[in-house]
Every structure is written in C-alpha cells, then in structure tokens.
C-alpha cells in the first residue's frame, strides 16, 4: 500500500519496489585494476582516474542525486568512491594524511540541490577514516555557466579564472574528487588554483568519465 502512495523505483534502471536493485549495484562495483587512468581533452597536469563510464546505472544514479534529490543513492556512489580512493592509496598514487577536495560547483546549483552532492558523496566515502579529511576548499565565482553542452574550448573559457579558494586550506596532499570528468577543464583550473596556493595535488578521481 505504501508503494502505491510513495512509489519506489530503482535509481539506476527504474525497476519498481526497490531504491537500488542488485543489477545496478553490480554496475558500480569497482573491478580489479580500476579506477582507470584516463586522458581528458584538457590536461589538468596531474593523473586523472575514473571509476567507470558515464553511462547506464552509473549515469542515472549521478543524475538522480544531483537533479532529483535522491539522497538515498549517495551511499552506493560513496561506496564505489571509497574503493577508488583505497585503490589509489594501495597503488601509491596518493598517501595519507590526505585531503579530498570536491570539485567546485556553482552556488545556485548547490542551493537548488540542497547542498553539494559531490561533497556529500566524498564525506560518506571516507567517513571514519582517521587520516583522510574532506575540505570544500574551492568555490565557483558568479557568472560561470552550466557547462552542460559546452565544447572543450567553451568549457575552458567558461571556467578560466572563476575557481577560487574558500575557507580553510588543506594541510596535506590533495586529491580532487568530482562526479563527472568531461573535458578536464574544471579539473585543470581546480588543480591550478590549489597548486598556486602551495598545495600538492596528487590526482583527480571521478565517479564517471564522459
């Protein structure tokens, strides 16, 4: 009866009577050898890793969290991200103590979404780890457009000079975390700003690569 009033559906495939089905959960499993090193069109100057392609259940889950308020899907995305961070530590790509810096988002978008979904995913992913902190050290200045639909050159122009430091600065090595890496423009500008502040940026890790 409750499903008739508040119908449940899987955030990945839309299957009824479940918020996250077993088939979609399998799509988020980080396989041996993952995350993959990727080569975005705009080089951020640091290694860029992605947990998978921006497709299927992964894409739908990210969209559901960002655009449809599906906070219940933060946990499965955070679980995949946690595995990705652990792998980078195991491979020696990053070291502890470590600070995760979520990629910046526009204030308007964050307000509309009830907060920054990337920061929420990252915070859940490393919750309880004594040597990893999440610091929202970057923000996007006003006038930056939504980057959806923009090509590489347009994304670079849109983001150039609009990522700035905010709040307290990290005190350790940094990894930038984002939900999607498309051209790499945001990753490059974020890394540039952090390096200019004297921080060591070890890598970029994205939940998905478009």
List the topology elements.
Layout: H1 2-5, H2 22-27, E1 36-38, E2 48-50, H3 56-67, H4 74-90, E3 98-102, H5 107-112, H6 117-125, E4 132-134, E5 138-140, H7 152-159, E6 163-165, E7 173-181, H8 185-196, E8 201-209
Parallel strand pairs: 2-8, 3-4, 3-7, 7-8
Antiparallel strand pairs: 1-2, 5-6
In angstroms, what is the radius of gyration? 17 Å
Summarize the biggest pleated sheet: 6 strands, mixed
Proportion of helical residues: 25-40%
- Return the CATH topology: Rossmann fold
**Low-pLDDT ranges:** none
% residues in beta strands: 15-25%
Whole-number total of structural domains:
1
Distance between the termini: 39 Å
- Structural class determined from secondary elements: alpha/beta
Major beta sheet, strand line-up: 1-2-8-7-3-4
Number of helices: 8
Number of strands: 8
Instruction: Please name the CATH architecture.
Output: 3-Layer(aba) Sandwich
Tell me, rounded to a whole number, the average pLDDT.
Answer: 89
Give the overall shape.
globular
Q: Give helix and strand order, one letter per element, not per position.
A: HHEEHHEHHEEHEEHE
Question: In summary, what is this structure?
Answer:
With 210 residues, the protein is an alpha/beta fold.
Keywords summarizing the entry:
210 residues, Rossmann fold, globular
Characterization of this structure:
This protein has 210 residues and is of the alpha/beta class. It has a single domain (30-209), classed as Rossmann fold, CATH 3.40.50. Helix content is 35%, strand content 18%. It has helices at residues 2-5, 22-27, 56-67, 74-90, 107-112, 117-125, 152-159, 185-196; strands at residues 36-38, 48-50, 98-102, 132-134, 138-140, 163-165, 173-181, 201-209. The strands form 2 sheets. Strands 1-2-8-7-3-4 form a 6-stranded mixed beta sheet, sandwiched between helices. A two-stranded antiparallel ribbon has the order 5-6. Helix 8 links the parallel strand 7 (173-181) and strand 8. Helix 4 packs across helix 6 (117-125). The longest helix is centred in the middle third of the chain and has 17 residues, at 74-90.
